[in-house]
Amino acid sequence: MTESTALYDIPGPAARRRHLLYGLASTAVLVALAGWVLHLLFDTGQFTSAKWTPFAYEGIQELLLRGLGNTLKAFACASVLSLALGAVLAAGRLSEHRVPRRLSTLLVEFFRAMPVLVMIFFIFVALKVQPLPALVAGLTLYNGSVLAEVFRTGVHAVARGQGEAAYALGMRKTQVMAYVLVPQAVRAMLPAIISQLVVALKDTSLGFLITYEEFLHAGKLIASDLDYDLPFIPVVLVISPIYIGMCMLLSWFATWVARRERRSPKTKAVDVAPAEPGTLLPGQR
User: How many C-beta atoms surround the C-beta of residue 33 within 10 A?
Assistant: First the structure.
């Protein structure tokens, strides 16, 4: 039998029956809700062949695939640049020098407080930047500032004695960060990093507001074409699962990486030279 933990006691037979009833009741409510939504969709004719025929056209399929490719392109650029910007800003906030620390703090707080859509529109309209660079720049500034706080918090979460021990061995601050603090902080930071990348992936849909031909923009073109009888709901039913699937795939990848790191930590044994006869121990004469 599983032992109780410090957080909670293992439920007894009555509690397990009660939890089972709660689970069955919740499942019944969710099934009823899903059935009601499907009934409304069928009742309004959302599953008629006329509304789903456009997706069989080669031109529509190419439009959706091109939009999906543009979404992934914007996400890839924004995620790499956000991680790089976050690392730079976090290093500035962790600096012992006043000027870079205060400047990094000002940038982080400013871009975290600024709505991402406002930044995208400002870059696109005021600076006359093309849609893809404007979208990537806005996503990078916002998500990079958030990731900077994630990195800084992760480094501070490492036990203080780890850094002190490294300094006692004569390591410089750069070496302490690169070889001691950051590798240990990565495991704690990974869930928050992936969660912010999921936010960046979803925010790529803002590109349709500046005419960037991403996935949502492609769906909008299909739904607004009068020749297709406004298949708005079918477009949503096609696009939404793909967005959800990409986010779930990213979360699954993060879980896999975290599990792999816990199972096989990267530690290497250090070869120690055997003691020779006559070798004095420290403190001996």
Answer: 10
Matching residue, tokens 């871009």? 111
Q: How far is 10 from 130, CA to CA, in rounded Å?
A: 58
| Burial class, 212, CB count within 10 angstroms (exposed 0-12 / middle 13-18 / buried 19+) | buried
What ranges make up the beta strands (E) of the chain? none
Query: Model confidence over 16-71: pLDDT tens digits?
Result: 899 899 999 999 999 999 999 989 888 888 888 878 888 888 888 899 999 999 99
- 235 vs 216: CA distance, rounded Å: 9
Alpha-carbon separation of residue 122 from 61, 129, 139, 205, 210 (angstroms):
33, 9, 13, 17, 11
Strands (E), 202-248: none
Structure tokens at 265: 């930590």
Which tokens sit at 274?
């055997």
Calpha distance 92→103 (Å, rounded): 8
* CA dist., res. 92 & res. 86, Å (int): 10
Maximum alpha-carbon separation in the chain: 96
List CB contacts of 58: < 8 A, sequence separation 6 or more. Answer: none
pTM as predicted = 0.77
> Which tens digits make up the pLDDT trace of 233-249?
888 888 889 988 988 88
